[in-house]
Design a protein that fits this description.
This protein is of the alpha/beta class. Helix content is 58%, strand content 7%. Helix 23 packs across helix 25.
Length: 667
Amino acid sequence: MWSDNEAVVDLLNVEHLVGAVLRVVKDDRLDPVTVGVYGDWGSGKSSVIHLLRERIATEPDLLAVYFNGWRFEGYEDAKAALASTILEQIQEEAEQPTGGKLAKVKTVVVDAVKAFWGRIDTLRLGKHALAVGANASIAAGAVALGATAAAPVTVAALVAAVLASLAASGKEIDGEQLAALIKAREAADAKEQRDTHVSVRDFHKAFAELVQKLNVKRLVVIVDDLDRCLPHNVIDTLEAIRLFLSAPKTAFVIAAEEGLIRDAVASRFAESPAAGGLDGRPRASVGARYLEKLIQVPVRVPPLSRSDLHGYLNLLFAEQREADAATFAQLCERVRASSSYDAVSFHAGNAKELLGRDVSDELRSDFLLAEQIAPVLALCAEGNPRQTKRFLNALVLRLQMSADRKVMLDRAIAAKMLLLEYFLPEMFRTLALDAAAHEGRAETLVDLEADVRGGAGDGTATPRAGAAVGTFAMQAAAMLDNERFRTWLRADPPLGTVDLRPYVYFANERFALPVGLAQRLSKAGSRALEQLLGDAESEQGAAAEVTAGLPLPEAAVILGELTARARGSGVDLQARTSPLHAMVAVAKKRPEVGTDVIAAILGLPYEVLPAGAAILIASLAPDPSLREPAVRALRTLSAQSRNPALSSAAASRLKTLESRAAAAAGR
């Protein structure tokens, strides 16, 4: 199986990104500089950072410091944690017995670092000390007030507390004493503000002097996993960079998912009510504007292209077959040197040359599997390396489980079934039910697979006559325009004549597989799902917007969970915050998943579907890519007899759509 940690060798062919960051860091014209390494969850940001650290280690005039904010979450103030990490690693480098980059200035640097520790202690105390403590004896009552930095005592709060205390004790209010107390508080606030300004200025100056003593061209501070932190820690770390630590001869490299950082900023700072800029054009969000000011040079880690993903799969398989890590690293170097941006970098045709030996039968079999699954993974995983590795791990574990039960699954069939389960879970569920009802064979697949392959199908890929309403056949009809489903159908091997029962059986053991929500959703995805399942309509709308912007694999997981909730007992599907409404809200924001949503609705028991389900499906029809799937679904619902109200509503909506289409054609 494959580790989920950052790559030790460059399997993603991101050396050009590492080189770009390094050139920016070394450019004197950009000193000091802040670089943002942006990418989606699982895109390979940490791998870029790991390779960057290795490159910097070979540069004698660059000194790297690594900070992982997530490791300190909940234990220490983010500003103090970042500052102390920088000092600790500078001191460790200076105190190396031999060969350190700071060997020539060891004594000077160690003394400067030791002197600087007092400022870090002050920073920690400033975070946790009481912002103010006021004791006043007014009339016969006593008021004791104190606040932390998280809840400071404002003048208004002070007045309210005093008045409440006196009212509770039945004492009269002494106006002069209250005025004196307010005046003292205002003076304390003014002094605290002046002291803060002085403290920030002195801290920045002292840090700049420390950096000058290092005798290196650039101190490179690498901040990783920032997007895993809670919003307030994200902001505290960014503020530390902006206010305290940005000094000459420093470079900060921040690896994060750009959208999550923008959201963290937006949660701290209120959005301006102005709709646009002075020129009338829409303004960027407060989070986007903040990042633009902080990050001078953004470097984005792109998703893997289809050819890149295919080569990546082949390298992952070669890694499993290669016992020696050094030999595999050399293979990766040769692959990178011979690769082209628009071709598969490592494949059966050049493997012997790049390996320097004959290709084993096992690796040849791996190449065939990669060729089979690469097109589907490229579409469904959207070129995400982490999703790709987790899919492969799930496949390996499933095959191992079946082998332990003395059931030998065909690896290619298991992979194709898992692709459907992983990325189109509702289609997998109804395919499994269909197969179970027909001795393990889903005959609908025979025509579907033949049609998409240009074979002996009937040319329409429609369900066979007599197919039960609401089964896999009906859902397949709704998914005919979905490129992910069609690509899956085209993938080898064909499944129409295969007994799928053993593959479905081991799919039921999902509790043992790393395909659960915790493994497949980012923090933003988990939060969006929570809100989509909630009762607040406003939150559901915002969560639909977030889900629409997530990578496709995460959106598929969320839709699968909403479908499962809709199928559960006791769920009011007529409510405006029902899972049905949430699914359609996502589809309206992201039409690409519209056919998934329509298929999911058709897969629900018609008896429990409200008449409003027809209205929801019809609401997707204005999108050109969803009009035909919506019309086909409404025809299906109008033809069924198990739910007359649903049938009537579907017929009415279908008539409206057809009338509008006729009117539009007559113009």
